[in-house]
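Below is just one:
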Amino acid sequence: MGALSHIRVLDLTRVLAGPWCAQTLADFGADVIKVERPGAGDDTRHWGPPYLKTPDGQDTAEAAYYLAPNRNKRSVTLDIATPEGQRIVRELAAQSDVVLENYKVGQLKKYGLDYESLRAVKPDLIYCSVTGFGQTGPYAPRAGYDFIVQGMGGFMSITGERDSLPGGGPQKAGVAIADLMTGMYSTIAVLTALAHRDRTGAGQYIDMALLDVQVAMLANMNTNYLASGTPPARWGNAHPNIVPYQAFQTTDSWIILAVGNDGQFRKFVEVAGRPELADDERFATNPARVRNRDTLVPIVAELIRTRSKADWIGALEGAGVPCGPINNLAEVFENEQVVSRGMQVDVPHPSGATARLVRNPIRMSETPPTVTSHPPTLGEHTVEVLRDVLGYSEEQVAALRGQGVA
């Protein structure tokens, strides 16, 4: 019984942004009914390899990508292109508090599944649309993809190595950050709308756009530009205002050195065996180090290359110099802090496999998020939902299956 166990969400989304929002709500107990296409389902079910494997090493039908944003949900298959499928979606909406969808602008209106149509059957409904560019503006009809939005929204202009250095140029993030952040902002919007409904009884429409979110999440980089009129540049792993504050290669790996003040710099060069650098007027203060970055950074890089990652981290942490490793994911999930915090959760799957997932990072004393069920197999709960939520008989469900509707 989670904090949102009184809420039902009808999830018409697929891929990542919408499902990430739905999963977050489900982690707090919401009953999330995921509607998928019969025979195919969410596109990400097939975005592999890798796939979830059975104990004997055989691939299941669930790609690892699909597993990431779909736990704690119930899967129902419905062909919403058919009048019967549309009728069932309207019936489910009438029994739901929230509808999530990420179809192209106007696509659901022709099916009678847009906000105004569903609001007619559920006046206090909260309806959240997630698209690439929103419901208005000249780009509204376009399909939105995370990679494109990272470029259009300015993120790639400030991410990547400097053009003047080897490997320089724009770089996307290693995960679909525009999708993920849109999922998180959508969660906030839905929860806000639920709070408003609880006070006033009124539902509302939510218009979420990946491009809006990508622009908003640039935070201080936005205000740096708006205050100065000069677009920020790419700095790779370096910092424009602090030196040395970047990644350096050791004998066996990489570390991050994050010297934030002059005292930390003195401690670093003492650990590195070059204490005289702290008194060199070129490096004694941070402004001086920034001015002489091109001289100092090669010196630091040469020093760091003389010892291993473990040696440096042990020595620098002992001296109070901020630093950290650059871990691959095997090292992440072996890290003692990550293990202690229980970030990996193992969930039994109907195939006999164990779905290894990552727990919700939110920790609360009274209403914590939980993992209660595996990412559902395609249509796993069709009979259950149609029977228990809408009161359909087994014969009615069988007829829908025979017609290819469910």
